[in-house]
Design a protein that fits this description.
By secondary structure, the chain is an all-alpha fold. The chain has 13 helices and two strands; from the N terminus they run H-H-H-H-H-H-H-H-H-E-E-H-H-H-H. Helices cover 56% and strands 1% of the residues. The N and C termini lie close together (5 Å).
């Protein structure tokens, strides 16, 4: 199987799709594919860490952990939860080292998921301490990518997946609005800076504002916009329907989903450069998985019109399924 660190996003999509009661894809076939992907992921995990010298708490594992935890919630025994808990416990429930760096706290999304199941406060304590410190010592760095200490803030669009969902999850668990106040301020600052109102997509970072593709179009990275949609989907699941902070994120989510469907390619997927699929002709399965996840959530929650968006989702799912092999 290919698609190292995003293939478990399939599982998140399946969870929502099955809960919605859709019948175009049978639950048995979904479960079969999910188990194949999950079991391969576990078997490949040691090789991945060794080959890429990645530690278990690096961002590259974050999406896989999230998807695996969603899959574990569907399976009939706790073996997958126990595998995840063993990894987290070995790391003593700590995020990576960077106090401000968004990538270094992505793993805390797993800790939040495990806490939701086991309700052991130890699982959240290091994450709560990290966020408490950051909120009490907010960075004043500029968001321009190459300015000093810019990475202390969310100056690149990937960061909007890595960190913000942890703030909304801790709000959900604690009811403390300080998490929402901080994430809302920082998220909106990043959006004002990086979001292109005309194209309804995020620049990866400020280095791309004035770059152009071979066809003259602006440069919008596929997986980067996938990161944003994946993060928004996570956040919306934790923000109550009547929460005063929710509308901004809901509107942004719908607007971006609409744009993704507009630029979906004939093969059903999206490419590394969203507006120049000719130069970057190979479909990008990681960004496509994020978009599938977002579309499924939006349809299931009634945020996206089923008649309009379901055909696009099914087309993307069929194409994505074709990328899973037996290796």
């Amino acid at each position: 199987m290919r698609l190292r660190y995003v293939c478990l996003l399939f599982c998140i999509f399946f969870v929502g799709y099955m809960k919605a009661g859709n019948t175009k894809i049978s639950p048995d076939s979904l479960m079969s594919v999910m188990k194949r992907v999950a079991d391969w992921q576990i078997a490949d995990y040691p090789r991945h860490l060794h080959k890429w010298t990645h530690t278990p708490v690096m961002w590259t594992n974050g999406v896989m952990y999230i998807g695996m935890a969603e899959w574990a919630s569907l399976w009939k025994d706790d073996s997958y939860f126990e595998w995840l808990k063993k990894i987290a416990a070995k790391e003593r429930w700590h995020p990576a080292k960077g106090m401000y760096f968004a990538d270094d706290i992505c793993v805390s999304q797993l800790y939040c998921q495990l806490y939701e199941k086991y309700k052991d406060p130890v699982m959240l304590q290091p994450t709560e301490a990290r966020l408490e410190w950051v909120m009490n010592h907010p960075s004043k760095a500029e968001l321009t990518y190459e300015s000093p200490h810019s990475h202390d803030r969310w100056c690149w669009c990937d960061a909007l997946f890595m960190a913000p969902p942890i703030f909304t999850r801790l709000y959900k668990e604690t009811g403390d609005k300080k998490y929402l106040e901080f994430v809302d301020k920082e998220y909106k600052a990043s959006t004002i800076f990086l979001y292109d109102l005309e194209e309804r997509m995020f620049f990866r970072d400020s280095r791309y504002f004035y770059q152009r593709e071979a066809n003259g179009k602006k440069v919008f990275w596929g997986r980067g916009n996938g990161w944003v949609l994946g993060g928004l989907t996570e956040m919306l699941q934790d923000l109550p329907k009547k929460n005063s902070y929710r509308q901004f994120y809901e509107d942004l989510f719908v607007e971006m989903c609409n744009r993704m469907v507009e630029i979906q390619q004939p093969d059903g997927l999206w490419h590394a450069s969203l507006l120049d699929p000719e130069t970057y002709a190979v479909p990008e399965t990681s960004c496509s998985s994020f978009i599938i996840y977002a579309l499924a959530y939006g349809i299931n929650e009634g945020l996206l019109d089923k008649a309009t968006y379901l055909p696009a989702l099914l087309k993307a799912w069929k194409a994505t399924l074709g990328t899973i092999d037996n290796e």
